[in-house]
Amino acid sequence: MPIPDSERVGILPLIVTDTPGSTITVNNVIKQFGRFAALRGVTAEFDAGRFHAILGENGAGKTTLLRALAGLAQPTRGEISIFGRSPQEACRDIGYMAHPSLLYDEMSGMENLRYFGSLYGIVGDARCEEVIRAVGLDPELTRAVGQYSQGMRQRMSLARAILHDPRVLLLDEPFSNVDVHSARAMVGLLKGMRDAGKTVFVITHQALLLEGVADEFVWMQAGEIVDRTASLARSASSAEGIQ
């Protein structure tokens, strides 16, 4: 039987992988789509082992920045370094969760993770079962992902992103269409990963879920970072209209 959407998300045992002082750097990154600039000279440093919440209105450049960090959007100009390597060179250390699930609808959750695990040399079902349980789903659920609720798809997508134990997590709207209890449990899982040394980036329009959890809030507007603060309340004026 599937675990209900309201089931508490489990906590994975994780390994500390980064040392203090490690950074992810973005240097004058511009990303153009034709004549439209989605990123306009973004420059920033992000410390490892911290939880970075990226906020801003639609069209602010959040997803483009996340895709650039993941190595999926090549900057038109500028450079990105993931602990001294390009995103493409560091791809094994990156877990990416897109707004679409990137799962195969005709396959079960376990079948999806077996396939993705094989790409990383993960043999056997133990790790797949571990991450499925960690996000509050049942490894024995045999129905196809295409028949999952949207909340279940989001959680299975998170399981896919953390399957290979990446050093960096890049998550685009992970709490979308997830009930409040399960969303808070997912936040708890991500907090545990940060506490174990992972570097977490989350784009969300549900910023209140991350108050007291995220180490910093990164506010974007019109393709630029306009503010970075430790408190959501302090910079509510930096991103008018964010819920």
Category from helices, strands and their pairing: alpha/beta
Radius of gyration: 17 Å
Instruction: Write down the secondary-structure element order.
Output: EEEHEEHHHEHEEE
Percent helix range: 10-25%
The CATH class is identified as: Alpha Beta
Write a structural description.
This protein has five helices and nine strands. It is of the alpha/beta class. It has a single domain, classed as P-loop containing nucleotide triphosphate hydrolases (Rossmann fold). The strands form two sheets. It has a six-stranded mixed β-sheet, with helices on both faces. It has a three-stranded antiparallel β-sheet with strand order 2-1-4, covered by helices on one side. α3 packs across α4. The termini are far apart.
Q: How would you briefly describe this protein structure?
A:
The protein is of the alpha/beta class. The chain has helices at residues 62-70, 109-119, 126-134, 150-162, 180-195; strands at residues 23-33, 36-47, 51-55, 77-82, 94-97, 168-172, 199-203, 216-221, 224-229.
Write the topology of this structure.
Elements: E1 23-33, E2 36-47, E3 51-55, H1 62-70, E4 77-82, E5 94-97, H2 109-119, H3 126-134, H4 150-162, E6 168-172, H5 180-195, E7 199-203, E8 216-221, E9 224-229
Parallel strand pairs: 3-7, 3-8, 5-6, 6-7
Antiparallel strand pairs: 1-2, 1-4, 8-9
Please give a handful of descriptors for the protein shown:
243 residues; 5 helices; 25% strand; alpha/beta; Rossmann fold
